[in-house]
Write a structure and sequence with these properties.
Layout: E1 6-13, H1 18-36, E2 41-49, E3 52-60, H2 64-71, H3 74-85, E4 88-89, E5 92-93, E6 98-105, H4 108-115, E7 128-135, H5 144-161, E8 168-181, E9 184-197, H6 204-218, E10 229-232, E11 248-249, H7 254-257, H8 278-295, E12 301-308, E13 317-321, H9 330-340, H10 345-352, H11 386-392
Parallel strand pairs: 3-6, 9-10
Antiparallel strand pairs: 1-8, 2-3, 2-11, 4-5, 7-12, 8-9, 12-13
Length: 393
């Protein structure tokens, strides 16, 4: 029997965190190529440090001349990302940092695995295992600790960018320790918030006075009590931030991007990868399936695992775990999933309409638990598979 009374902790990082700067640039490069050609191939990695950004990896368009033309846009794309995030520091400024573009044409050997599967259907771009998860802890069917850790940083970014809090700066991290009773989140035992700020004279108390009202607004009523521990800028001054304070790299925040450690992760990062890469698309569809299982009332929480092999179109396995909360047997859900959706890479992309420039917005504050958008962004958060699943079990 699972524990019912415990404390679980998750962290989030802001769009100005060095790794998230890199995720944003990589996904903006992806969006640019998908805007040119929906079937574009992109595997873009970004590295950032003091006054420098390096972008490398593989890209592919059917028109080779257009591919070389697009290469000339990469520097402008990176600078636009840094500007939107808000970096205008002496040693990391959108207008003056050095941008190096090392992107090159996609390997023909990788392309053949995707394009020429033995059954003439598109094969997976790599082997791997992908997980999706959903739980009734929040209306968004996300684990509460990561959901609210994200929400705090999104709110602080809003008031920084709209000028309400002009002394806040882009780099920030949050961490929430959430208290559970009878398996339900009921409060916060500790709150950790470190945020970059403008002036060395600002103390930890000064920063807490700025951020505390926004944190209280974001968390559910009653979750903060006199016993809640606050750790705001616990090391004191945090003026030097972003890639000037610490190097960043695409794909290093995979737990922040997913479920905050409350569910398994297959190990593959998302950002910078086009949706033929099942690291991304299959993780999205696994979340979609888990969310629809929970939304259907079949279970209170659900993990879905999918596995793939390079060049093979269909998943090698489908696994479901409802942790004893299900009204339907796990094996019946597994069978139903295979009946209601095509889980080949192309089937996933077509069902969720992933061949669109919708990825830069995913690069911070989590890929899951976000509202589906009119242009197709976060399509994997829809619950439009509920009726089909119910009919199939």
């Amino acid at each position: 029997m699972s524990r019912q009374n415990y404390v679980f902790t998750s962290e989030s990082v802001s769009e100005g965190h060095p790794d998230k700067v890199c995720d944003r640039i990589s996904d903006a490069v992806l969006d640019a190529f998908l805007s040119e050609e929906p079937e574009a191939r992109v595997a873009a990695e970004t590295f950032a440090t003091t006054n420098r950004v390096v972008i490398g990896g593989e890209v592919g368009l059917s028109d080779k001349e257009r591919l070389h033309e697009y290469m000339g846009r990469i520097e402008d794309i990176a600078r636009a990302c840094i500007r939107d995030i808000g970096y205008e520091q002496d040693k990391f400024h959108h207008a003056t940092c050095e941008i190096t573009n090392l992107l090159h044409e996609q390997s023909a050997h990788i392309a053949q695995g995707v394009d020429s599967a033995a059954d003439k259907d598109e094969g997976a771009g790599d082997q791997g295992i992908m997980f999706g998860f959903a739980t009734r802890e929040t209306p968004e069917l996300m684990p509460a600790p990561i959901h609210y850790a994200h929400a705090i940083l999104r709110r602080l970014a809003e008031v920084r960018k709209n000028g309400t809090e002009p002394t806040l700066r882009p780099d920030a991290k949050s961490q929430l320790s959430v208290r559970y009773e009878n398996g339900v989140p009921v409060g916060v035992s500790s709150i950790v918030l470190s945020t970059q700020h403008a002036d060395e004279s600002q103390t930890s108390d000064d920063i807490r006075a700025i951020v505390e009202p926004y944190i209280r607004d974001v968390l559910p009523d009653g979750w903060i009590s006199p016993d809640t521990e606050w750790w705001v800028n616990p090391t004191g001054t945090f003026v030097i931030g972003g890639p000037d304070g610490d190097a960043g790299l695409t794909g290093r925040k995979i737990i922040v991007d997913t479920y905050g450690g409350a569910a398994p992760h297959g190990g593959g990062a998302f950002s910078g990868k086009d949706p033929t890469k099942v690291d991304r698309s299959a993780a999205y569809v696994a979340r979609y399936l888990a969310k629809n299982v929970v939304a259907s009332g079949m279970a209170e929480k659900c993990t879905i695992q999918l596995s793939y092999a390079i060049g093979v179109s269909k998943p090698l396995s489908i696994y479901c775990d409802t942790f004893g909360t299900g009204d339907v047997a796990d094996h019946a859900i597994e069978k139903a999933i295979g009946q209601v959706i095509d889980l080949t890479p192309r089937g996933i992309r077509e069902h969720l309409q992933l061949n669109r420039p919708i990825y830069a917005r995913t690069a911070a504050y989590g890929h899951f638990g976000r509202a589906p958008e009119a242009d197709g962004g976060f399509s994997w958060e829809k619950t439009d598979l509920v009726d089909a699943l119910k009919a199939a079990v």
